[in-house]
Design goal:
Blueprint: E1 9-15, E2 22-28, E3 32-34, H1 48-52, H2 70-76, E4 82-83, E5 88-95, E6 107-108, H3 112-115, E7 119-121, H4 135-143, H5 147-152, E8 164-168, H6 170-175, H7 177-185, E9 190-193, H8 195-202, H9 206-222, E10 244-257, E11 260-262, E12 268-270, E13 276-282, E14 287-288, H10 299-314, H11 323-337, H12 343-347, E15 350-351, E16 354-359, E17 362-365, H13 378-381, H14 389-395, E18 408-409
Helix pairs in contact: 7-14, 8-9
Length: about 400
């Protein structure tokens, strides 16, 4: 901050990995925008998670490794206030990767998987909740499998976080086909032919799984179950022996931090006395106080969009080149410079340090982008040297590729 109290830039320290020497660089600007996310992945001693919610320290998270509260620390270093730091959302369903079950980072299994008819079954082979309930409700039902939690309603950090089976019928799987295909490609869901295969995968007696599914079928006919569920989609077909199931293991995960830097409705960061800190702004999960005790599903990206737009519009920026002209320049560039390639050419670039992927008929060098990928580098690196169109289309629209210049055309 300058002598008037305005934030005028940041100081960056870069460490040379070879000799460990630090290089300090001061970057000045009339405005600084913090958009660095939350703190759910920082389980180090002295972290925000340890300070505000120590009982959650051993619970896995869907946030990337970057989610360590660095932007919050930057803000407090110039006097920013904090709000709702103890409000951390636990989502009921994060996928447990059978290849790496103890990894603290989990892929989210969104509400869609239960909305189309996925049912939750515990290790005794029983349903235990209305799968369509709120995140807080389903999580509470999951954690209530622990006797200490039932008594205190507070998770014991020494307890093992429970796991459950998420099971979809063939019709439910068809309703969420793109998502099912995506999770199967990542090894998080398996396809099982018939009741016996499902019971074997769950390591339970066939009659136990059969009785649970039969009861669910009866409940769907009556449009009501023990837990108040009245909407039943994707119910398994009558002949369980020939039904096709999709199943995976899920567990409660840290998913969102409602707390963060105090901001006003314009995205300006406030100090501890609720005064605006000139030149400092925040948008997204780094800020707090927007969602109250527990965020509603679907509102995190909305928050980023709303406050990102508000902050962006109020800050002066250089005029942008019209999109039409940009696209024209891009098309001219493609016509003149982009070479023709074959998959044999792509296959030569198949490593973490040299990662080319074919998507929708074009070839992209994603070597440097892999580390910046919000979902982590693994899903990109595992496609190095391959045609990744199917995996890409399962979660992205083709338009997102407009931000990337292809290195070749198939």
């Amino acid at each position: 901050r300058d002598e008037d109290g305005s934030v005028i830039g940041v100081e960056a320290v870069t460490t040379n990995p070879k000799d460990g020497d630090n290089t300090t660089q001061t970057l000045t600007a009339p405005n600084v925008v913090l958009a660095t996310g939350g703190f759910a992945s920082d389980r180090s001693h002295g972290s925000y998670l340890e300070h505000y919610r120590p009982e959650l320290m051993k619970m896995p998270a869907t946030a990337g490794e970057f989610s360590t509260g660095d932007g919050i620390t930057l803000g407090t270093s110039v006097g920013a206030g904090l709000v709702d730091m103890d409000k951390v959302q636990v989502h009921p369903t994060g996928w447990v990767d059978p290849k790496d079950p103890n990894n603290p980072g989990k892929v989210l299994s969104g509400e869609l998987m239960r909305g189309v008819g996925g049912i939750l079954i515990n290790q005794s082979g029983k349903r235990f909740c209305n799968e369509l309930g709120t995140r807080a409700y389903v999580t509470d039902k999951m954690l209530s499998h622990d006797s200490d939690y039932v008594q205190s309603k507070k998770w014991n950090v020494t307890s093992e976080v429970p796991t459950f089976s998420l099971v979809l019928s063939s019709s439910a799987g068809e309703s969420a086909k793109k998502h099912v295909d995506h999770y199967m490609n990542k090894g998080l869901l398996v396809k099982l032919e018939g009741l016996h295969a499902l019971a074997k995968w769950m390591d339970l007696p066939v009659y136990t799984v059969r009785d649970t599914l039969r009861e669910y079928q009866r409940d769907s006919t009556n449009a009501s179950d023990t837990w108040g569920k009245t909407s039943f989609s994707g119910v398994p077909q009558g002949d369980l022996a020939t039904e096709v199931f999709y199943a995976g293991t899920v567990t409660p995960v840290l998913h969102y931090c409602m707390g963060g830097l105090t901001i006003d409705k314009e995205g300006s960061v406030l100090d501890e006395d609720k005064n605006i800190i000139p030149g400092l702004h925040a948008a997204g999960e780094v800020s707090g106080g927007v969602h109250g005790d527990n965020r509603l599903g679907g509102n995190s990206l909305l928050e980023c969009t709303v406050f990102g737009t508000i902050v962006g519009k109020k800050l002066p920026i250089k005029p942008r080149q019209p999109i039409q002209q940009m696209n024209q320049n891009r098309n001219e560039k493609e016509q003149i410079q982009i070479p023709k390639m074959t998959m044999a050419d792509v296959e030569q670039h198949n490593s973490e340090g040299d990662c080319w992927i074919a998507i929708h008929g074009k070839v992209y060098d994603l070597t440097e982008f892999a580390e910046e990928h919000p979902a982590g580098p693994e899903s990109i690196i595992e496609l190095a040297g391959q045609d990744g169109t199917e995996d890409f289309a399962a979660v992205h629209s083709e338009g997102i590729l407009q931000d990337f210049d292809p290195v070749g055309i198939l």
